[in-house]
Amino acid sequence: MPDPRRAIPRTDAVLAEPRIAKAAGTLGRDLVKAIVNAVQQAARVGEIAPADVVDTVLARLPAGASSLRPVVNATGVVVHTNLGRAPLSGAALDALTAAAGATDVEFDLTTGERARRGRGALAALAAAVPDAGGVHVVNNNAAALLLCALALAPGREIVVSRGELVEIGDGFRIPDLLASTGARLREVGTTNRTSIRDYAAALGPETGFVLKVHPSNYQVTGFTSAVPIGELAGLGVPVVADIGSGLLTPHPLLPDEPDATSALRAGAAVVTASGDKLLGGPQAGLLFGAADVVERLRRHPAARALRVDKLTLAALEATLRGPEPPVRAALDVPVESLRRRAEALAEALGADAVASVAAVGGGGAPGVELPSAAVSLPARYAAALRAGEPAVVGRVSGDRCLLDLRTVRPQEDVKILEAVRRCG
Ligand SMILES: *Cc1c(COP(=O)(O)O)cnc(C)c1O
């Protein structure tokens, strides 16, 4: 009996197969070779037939050189932190690609001299929030708060309501972040109620600023009161407002969600926000404020450690100047159109279309329910869909796996159709 292991194709032969050779060109030869060797080993121990080595290698090749896998977000959570928050717009993607090589991010092509870094993105931000005398961009909103504490309250007190001591996620807490700079947190009021007198009593020569944090991932209801920015601004110390979600102007569907323009008009000295929540752009921390205050932030030594790269600047500018990004489309799409898409998919799949409730997500508007529509499948589909390419992530509810269409872009419906069929 001949040893079947001798039929296992040699590494060189497998790597020479045209489709595998092409993959080695984009993924790197080492990565592809490691997959080939693993598959040969599987054949040696009899897990697969020698004749299946090439097909198995092809099936195991990743779609790209990064191990990050593309996901269709069918969870119904618009800003899903674990799925990378905002998906970028086509305009932002194009801008990223164009900026990826050498680019004039800090160079004036007319004079041939150094220029203000990221001036295009800063100009777009300033144009979007004309009430801001100055704007600045850092790595994320946490970095924006860090910079405020370092530059505006070094070794001094930051006055904040006990109702606004927020844990952002993954165990990170805004009060700890601020205290890590050496500033001291001066907590005022109670969890449910804080009055202007509480703030006033805490102010003194040690005060750096009053911090107003939007409770973006929880709600305190019942016997509550909080002090609006407008009243805090009357206290005579700078107010830093962390609005969280990155709305630049009010959104009609989210009346309780703060926005940068309104916060500045109410008298905030600085407004901080994320770029990758409701703004729909890349991860970034946005700072808006009076020109002199923003200049202090920009010139602080730590600003250099918190600065963003050219890719972020490119994507941010394109998000601001380009067409409506996917996050905004997901908020604004009428439920009837979602229902029609769910029915069409359900009919093609022999499944049910059901009413669903989507959410904005950890990025803002806690408690807001967005009417939606979903394709309902047995729960066992959830794991199989996650394992697909692209992975489809739905929401398991009881014994059902719901694919909520509010967070699915219309051009992704066909991917859902194919993915579910492959699981069938
Ligand atoms: C999300 C959020 C943050 C953290 O923002 P990152 O951009 O993730 O650093 C801080 N404050 C509030 C109110 C938030 O909602």
TrEMBL record:
GO molecular-function terms, A-Z: L-seryl-tRNA(Sec) selenium transferase activity
Coiled coil spans: none
Keywords carried by this UniProt record: Cytoplasm, Protein biosynthesis, Pyridoxal phosphate, Selenium, Transferase
Catalytic activities: L-seryl-tRNA(Sec) + selenophosphate + H(+) = L-selenocysteinyl-tRNA(Sec) + phosphate
Modified residue annotations for N6-(pyridoxal phosphate)lysine: K277
Pathway assignment: Aminoacyl-tRNA biosynthesis; selenocysteinyl-tRNA(Sec) biosynthesis; selenocysteinyl-tRNA(Sec) from L-seryl-tRNA(Sec) (bacterial route): step 1/1
Record-level GO cellular component terms: cytoplasm
The enzyme's E.C. designation: 2.9.1.1
A Pfam family hit: SelA
Keyword Nucleotidyltransferase: no
Leading EC class: transferase
Cell compartment(s), UniProt: Cytoplasm
Domain L-seryl-tRNA selenium transferase N-terminal: 5-44
InterPro entries: PyrdxlP-dep_Trfase (IPR015424), PyrdxlP-dep_Trfase_major (IPR015421), SelA-like (IPR018319), SelA_trans (IPR004534), SelA_trans_N_dom (IPR025862)
The protein's required cofactors: pyridoxal 5'-phosphate
The keyword Zinc belongs to this UniProt entry's keyword annotation: no
One of the GO BP terms on file: conversion of seryl-tRNAsec to selenocys-tRNAsec
Function, as annotated: Converts seryl-tRNA(Sec) to selenocysteinyl-tRNA(Sec) required for selenoprotein biosynthesis.
PANTHER family: L-SERYL-TRNA(SEC) SELENIUM TRANSFERASE (PTHR32328:SF0)
HAMAP family the UniProt entry points to: SelA
Listed NCBIfam families: selA
Similarity comment text for this entry: Belongs to the SelA family.
Protein name: L-seryl-tRNA(Sec) selenium transferase
